[in-house]
Amino acid sequence: xxxxxxxxxxxxxxxxxxLARAEGVSFFYGEGESRFQVLFDIGLEIPxxxxxxxxxxxxSGKTTLLTLIGALRSLQEGRVEVLGHDLAxxxxxxxxxxxxxxGFIFQMHNLFEALSAYENVKMALQLAGRRTAADMRARGVAxxxxxxLGARIDQKPRALSGGQxxxxxxxxxxxxxxxxxxxxxxxxxxxxxxxxxVVHLFKELTVEEGTAILMVTHDHRIIELADRLLHMVDGRxxxxxxxxxxxxxxxxxxxxxxxxxxxxxxxxxxxxxxxxRHYMTDEIVIREGETGHELFLISEGEVKVERGGRExxxxxxxxxxxxxxxxxxxxxxxxxxxMHPLEAYVLGEEDFHAAIAASVSFREQxxxxxxxxx
Amino acid sequence: xxxxxxxxxxxxxxxxxxxxxxxxxxARAVAGIGFAVLLMLVxxxxxxxxxxxxxxxxxQLDGAIIVMHATKYRFGSEDPFPRADLAKAPNVAGVxxxxxxxxxxxxxxxxxxxDGKSYLVQVFAFDPDDPPFLLPAVRADSARxxxxxxxxxxxxxxxxxxxxSGARATELNGHPVQIxxxxxxxxxFMSDGTVMMSAASYARLLTDNxxxxxxxxxxxxxxxxxxxxxxxxxxxxxxxxxxxxxRILSKRQLEEFETDFQANLSSAGPIFWMxxxxxxxxxxxxxxxxxxxxxxxxxxxxxxxKGMGYNTFYLLRVVFAQAALSAAAAYVPAWLLCLVxxxxxxDVALLPLHMTAMQTLISFALxxxxxxxxxxxxxxxxxxLDPAEVF
Lengths: 374, 391
Description:
The complex is a heterodimer of chains A (374) and B (391). Chain A is of the alpha+beta class and 374 residues long. Chain A folds into two domains: 9-242, Rossmann fold (3-Layer(aba) Sandwich), CATH 3.40.50; 249-373, Sandwich (Jelly Rolls). Chain A has twelve helices and 18 strands. Chain A has helices spanning 62-69, 92-101, 117-125, 133-146, 162-174, 192-209, 220-223, 245-253, 264-273, 323-328, 349-358, 360-373; strands spanning 20-29, 36-46, 51-55, 77-82, 85-86, 102-105, 180-184, 212-216, 228-233, 236-242, 275-279, 284-286, 294-300, 303-307, 310-315, 320-321, 335-338, 342-348. The longest helix of chain A is centred in the middle third of the chain and has 18 residues, at 192-209. Mean pLDDT of chain A is 86; it is low at 1-7 and 12-16. Chain B has two domains: 14-54 and 268-389, no CATH class; 99-221, no CATH class. A nine-stranded mixed β-sheet of chain B has the order 7-8-6-9-5-2-10-1-11. In chain B, strands 3-4 form a two-stranded antiparallel sheet. In chain B, strand 7 and strand 8 form a beta hairpin. In chain B, helix 1 (14-21) crosses helix 10, helix 2 runs antiparallel to helix 11 (357-384) and helix 7 crosses helix 8. The interface between A and B is medium-sized, with 32 and 27 residues.
């Protein structure tokens, strides 16, 4: 799935363009003696196209963080930017506008009991303005249909099961195709089929429309599909792991000098074709004199480069080797040995040449390194 | 601000849906606010009924101008003036007729055919050929009053007087009298029943035959005008012609004179005003409580609206529309029920209660106002707080 339509994967990491960004956010409940801190100096960036899952024990501040980013709660300390707006600098009318651009799926569903499933969705649709009744009906029905509620369009929440209500709430949040979706346990009441359906819808939105989704959930079926996993404990983000391999490679590549000049598109192209490979200590990665077919990029570990049995260089994380044989067509001019357990991203010959052909800057970067080493 | 009363096709009629969706909540609102409306209307009705009753006789006087003693402070205070004071009235330009009206509130004891006890009654006496009342029955039966000691009685008088019992004879001040007819006037808060007779019978019963009617002082001079005459001009003419000891009022002025006494000088007026005021206050508190509870239940819904990106204006619009719809939904049945209650009270208490446009308007405006105010109070929290704090 890592490459399922991940056309602009690396674009998701393009700096300066996150859809949501938190910086130094702290939050307290209560006053005076009973003042209680629930968030501690949270920093977080959510780029377009990422499905970010947030886990953590109850009371760890997940919902609070979600509502802060969703402009549903006033900031106390720190800074939150959402869809290009600095929330602290917005007046109430500005906050109203930001909320309209966010799809928030509430933990308690918060459906309007007096309205039918469709009317609940319409409450969101009519906010977008200048839509005809027929257009709204078509969109609302399509969204409900997509979530398997086609037969329940005119039923009120009271007549629906917990899972159906939750799906109506999801339909309402997604109806306007928001660029940012914030969801609090959106699948808690869903059966496995509905969950799969909902998760695939989320995934589709991230991949095809670049929607960013920040979701509190403990549902493993969602975590498996997440691009990134945040874990919160006692008001702090204690881990922030990128689960998607291609995404992780992108993350890595963008900090490597040779790849810096690539456009996100080209970077994605390279990242998607790289394979992760592991070597044990003292294992030989390439041998002098053999024909070279692959380029190696060190992700973790260190290697020594030997020419004629003599060590000539050591390379570490973020450095690459093997380009020489690929560029010149000659046999390997050195032996490379892993000094510690090594994790490397490997790019095949064809993909290497394709990448070079695609990017003038990449070719020049490689040549520069090539000449520096010779 | 437009309030969507009926569902529109364009946007979701949230207030309307909220009103109708929860039948129990609707029933609670209709019952609660409806009771408040009923309370207001009944108190207003009592007040109105009291003033109406006090004007009952005045309105039945058949004359455009009424002459009475200058020191008289209310219609029913016994304060007669010499009949001779009216002597010059017929000569005043525009005057068609002058009818002396004798009245007594303090001197006639009616023996009730119902229980045989004697009760003080209101008595009017006049020339049977020229009855100064508009009551059709009085005009029809007045000829029969020419018989000695013949009286006609108010069949709507309080039942203990037995005036509607069908008895043909009883006693007034110990003298036997013949009941020769009846009319429909109704009691007021001062007198329980009314008896009418000829001036001759009046003189006989009051003075035990010692004085003639002509020598007795009268309570009112009831003056009819020639067609086309100007009331103001005739009044001025009468003032010039009659002695200074009499007061000359148009019928309208007499009604105002009486209302002014009841409202401002009597103890009953303020009591009824107070009743109406308490009715309003209690009614408004009930409305407030009902609407507040109603909306408090739905606060998370309104917070959700805010969270979705609806502005405060929309929020207020929905809440006010919902409150106004609740008020209207409760008002209509309560108003109809009130007509029944008026009827029942009218029958039991013999107090004529009428629904007037003014009562309807005042009570509806107060109900609506209170419901809107309660809505504003209830929603204050949602407007002030962040949406996440209300969920």
